[in-house]
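Below is how a single chain appears once it has passed through the pipeline. First comes the sequence as given, then the structure the pipeline wrote out for it. We keep one example in the README because the format questions we get most often are answered faster by looking than by reading.
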Amino acid sequence: MQVYPNRFQQHIQQQGLSPFILIFGDEPQQKLDMIDGIRKLAKSLGFDERQTLVADSDFSWSQLIDATQSMSLFSDKQYIELTLPTGKPGAEGSKVLTAIADNPFLDTLIVIQGPKIGKDVQKAKWFKALDSQGVFSHCYPLEPKQLSQWIEQRCRETKVNMSPSAINLLADFSEGNLLAAKQEIEKLALMYADNGQQVDEKVLAAGMVDQSRFTVFQFIDDLLAGNMQKAIKILHRLESEGVEPNIILWNLIKEAQTLAECQAMQMLEGSVNFNKLRIWQSKQMLYRNALQRLSPAHVKLLTTHLQQADLILKSEQTARPYILLSHLALLFMPAPLQNLSLN
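Resulting structure:
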């Protein structure tokens, strides 16, 4: 059963947790919100331990089978998070997932997450078997109207009284970046939550003008523009502020996928229809600059390195993740780092 991200939290609170939850897509903030909601509810229901598996090239599907059958020292309930880096489990994985769906284990919760998937994956036997007994949600970038609704909902949750004009201004300011919008709302909540004051357009604009901290979306903009020195400085600032590396990586993956879509459209149609790709007008010049610098071969190499980095960060194999992120940032130039190992 498909549940849209904006209704996901309400669904699991009312209907409870299904044995299988499938979360795919390229919008990181929605995925974070849903997975955090699952973890909190699962913990309250007695799923005290969580096993995390990544189906990379070194993964054995017997690990998932063992995880579903093993008994915890502290709980008889199994909570397993499985990441599919490509969105597809392969032939062996398909058989294992189908078998698990056909014979679900009692008191076992399996959350499967991955990037954006197509109809071919959704029509696969393993996917339909899991979906028939569980919940599926796909996280798409939000359109302007949906973004305004998302901001309005966030404001209600954080008890920030924001005027409609301020909501529209924040939607324009964040340009579809939910992480940036969330950060602004959290800042406003510290100052205006529960005090009765309405945050109007002037108050919001003044706060954004005075804002001096660097943000993830500014980092991405400078990468696309080719301002590498400034981008790396912002990256160092993000590290000092304790920003989760996976949030930055998810944004890099999203930008690489968007660049690949632009290049594919350019090859097929002769030009890029940015509106069709849901790229905001204020960011179209940034993408034009990046497309002039990066060939399809560069973008393919960048995508390969991003996939490798995703596996490294998920398995926590690097002590300095921001060094790895700097490496990835330089590939947007593109810097000749194709023979330099991420490790």
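The first strand starts at residue 20 and ends at 25.

See the next section for the split statistics.
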